[in-house]
Amino acid sequence: MLNKYARAFFTRVLTPFAALLIRLGISPDAVTLIGTGGVVAGALIFYPQGEFFWGTVVITLFVFSDLVDGNMARQLGRSSRWGAFLDSTLDRVADSAIFGGLALWYAGAGNSLTLCAIAIFCLASGQVVSYTKARGEAIGLPVAVNGLVERAERLVITLVACGLSGLHTFGVPGIETLLPIALWIVAIGSTVTLGQRVVTVRRESAEADAIARGGNSA
Ligand SMILES: CCCCCCCC/C=C\CCCCCCCC(=O)OC[C@H](COP(=O)(O)O[C@@H]1[C@H](O)[C@H](OP(=O)(O)O)[C@@H](O)[C@H](O)[C@H]1O)OC(=O)CCCCCCC/C=C\CCCCCCCC
Ligand SMILES: Nc1ccn([C@@H]2O[C@H](COP(=O)(O)O)[C@@H](O)[C@H]2O)c(=O)n1
Ligand SMILES: [Mg+2]
Ligand SMILES: [Mg+2]
Question: Which positions are annotated as binding a CDP-1,2-diacyl-sn-glycerol (predicted)?
């Protein structure tokens, strides 16, 4: 949903910045790599220590590179298969660091094996949700469904909750409960999304196989 409705807005807002980076001679691939590096560093340095506010500030500064790199490639007329591969592959790395950092916190000083398990579930289910689309498309299906909780939703729900939970360090009482709630929402939402995508791929592959069999017997 965010991908559908918020992307146009962010494209408008980020286009001048993307144009500036192009004028400075920076490539889309460099933005993809530096952005991912920043997200990974922010997540793995701050989150395992329970520094949710500053971790989220650092991650937020870098995560928008994922919208800037494609914007730059399009402005340059240089959108490429390699760029699409690099972008999607490094998305998986960034997501692993965010949920891995949260799992490390709960496995250590955060002291909750249940929430550690939920964070790991969010990590794994998010990767599988993305894989369903990539694999379905690789076998020639349209995979005409995005589902309830896409990557943008997973990130926004988690990062908003992390940033707000971090205000606990500054004395805001009770706000840290937002993060566990967000993790449960992402875990359940990702499971529903996985179901939606699997059902769609099952239907599309049955239709494609029926057409192929009909074509062969004719
Ligand atoms: C006092 C308060 C303290 C608060 C501290 C700071 C809080 C900041 C909080 C949040 C900011 C969150 C910003 C997150 C932005 C994420 C943007 C982003 O990177 O989206 C990426 C997404 C996908 O792009 P791609 O096409 O490159 O990716 C494809 C996709 O990932 C597929 O995944 P799948 O869906 O299948 O799982 C893959 O299959 C495919 O491989 C991959 O290529 O881009 C978009 O979706 C575009 C829309 C972005 C919408 C961003 C909305 C940000 C909205 C609100 C931020 C509001 C913050 C308000 C904080 C308020 C707190 C009080
Ligand atoms: N280094 C890159 C990154 C991206 N692309 C192209 O942009 C598409 C993704 O667009 P986003 O707005 O979601 O970033 C991607 O599929 C590529 O076509 C690129 O060429 N090089
Ligand atoms: Mg991108
Ligand atoms: Mg991306």
Answer: 29-32, 70, 74, 80
Q: Which of 51, 91, 95, 176 is catalytic?
A: 91
Q: 217 CA to middle of ligand 1, Å?
A: 47
Write the pLDDT tens digit of every residue in 24-64: 999 999 999 999 999 999 999 999 999 999 999 999 999 99
Largest CA distance in the chain: 73
- Chain mean position to CA 58: 16
**Mutation pick for ligand 2 pocket among 78, 79, 85 (CB with most ligand atoms within 8 Å):** 79
Q: Is the pLDDT of residue 215 over 80?
A: no
How far is 136 from 9, CA to CA, in rounded Å?
29
Give the other-Cβ count within 10 Å of 163's Cβ: 19
Q: How far away, in angstroms, is 88 Cα from ligand 1 center?
A: 14
Instruction: Tell me what ipTM this predicted complex has.
Output: 0.87
Q: Residue 91 catalytic?
A: yes
The position carrying tokens 């550690």 is 116
Within 10 A of 150 (CB to CB), how many other CB atoms are there? Answer: 20
Distance, in Å, from the CA atom of 193 to the CA atom of 199, rounded to the nearest integer, reads 10
pTM, to two decimals = 0.93
CB 39 within 8 A of CB 98: yes
> Does residue 91 contact residue 134 with C-beta atoms inside 8 Å?
no
Ligand 2 residue neighbourhood (C-beta within 6 Å): 28-29, 32, 66-67, 69-71, 73, 79-80, 83-84, 86-87
